[in-house]
Amino acid sequence: MVMMSLELTGKLPFDTVMLHGLLRDAQGRKMSKSLGNVIDPMDVIDGRSLEDLEARLCAGNLDPREVARAREGQRLAYPEGIARCGADALRITLLAYNVKNLDINFNVAHAESNKRFCNKIWQSFKFILSKIGDGPFQSTDFKLTGQEDSTDLWILSQLSHMVHVCHAHFEAYDLHLVVEALHQFWYRDLCDVYLESVKPV
C-alpha cells in the first residue's frame, strides 16, 4: 500500500502502523490446517456446522492421516460447530485482545460472548429510542436543562469518565482497555443501573 500510494499519488497512505502479535488458537497453538484449528473469520461471522467444517477439511489437499487428526481437533474444539456471531462481535473480540502481546489466543467463545454485548447495545438503544418520541433523532449540542435528577447527573458523570478513559487508551493504542471501559460502562452503569432506574418514570 505504501509503495503503490507513493508511486500513484506521491503521498503516504498513513503515517502510523500498529503491529500485532501472532494469532493462535484458544490453546495457544499456531493455527495449522493439519491441526484443524484454523479459524476462518467468515465462519465466526456467519456460523458453520461441524459437518461444514469437516467437509472443508476433506475437500482440501491434506494427507488422509492429517485429515483424521484435524477432524478430531475440530470435534473437540467445536462439538456443535461455530455459532453465528456477526461481524461486529468479531471486531470487538479482536479489539478486546491485547494486540501488543507476542501471542494472541483467539477463542470463538469470546466472540459468542461479545455477540451478547452487541445485542445488549442494540436492546438498550431500542429502549432509548422508544422513549425519545416519534420522528428521527436529531443530535444537538448537549446542555443541562436543570431538570436532571441525581441519577441523570450520575450517568452523565460516568459517561464523561468513560470518554476520558477511552481517549487516554486510544492515545496509547491500548484498544483492549478501550473495549474494557465500554463493557463496564454499558453493562454496569448504563444498563444495570441507569436504564433500570428510569424505566418506571
From TrEMBL:
Originating gene: LOC106014007
Domain Methionyl/Valyl/Leucyl/Isoleucyl-tRNA synthetase anticodon-binding positions: 152-200
Aminoacyl-tRNA synthetase class Ia domain boundaries: 1-105
Protein name according to UniProt: valine--tRNA ligase
Catalytic EC class: ligase
A molecular function (GO) term: ligase activity
This enzyme's EC code(s): 6.1.1.9
Keyword entries, A-Z: Aminoacyl-tRNA synthetase, ATP-binding, Ligase, Nucleotide-binding, Protein biosynthesis
Cross-referenced Pfam families: Anticodon_1 (PF08264), tRNA-synt_1 (PF00133)
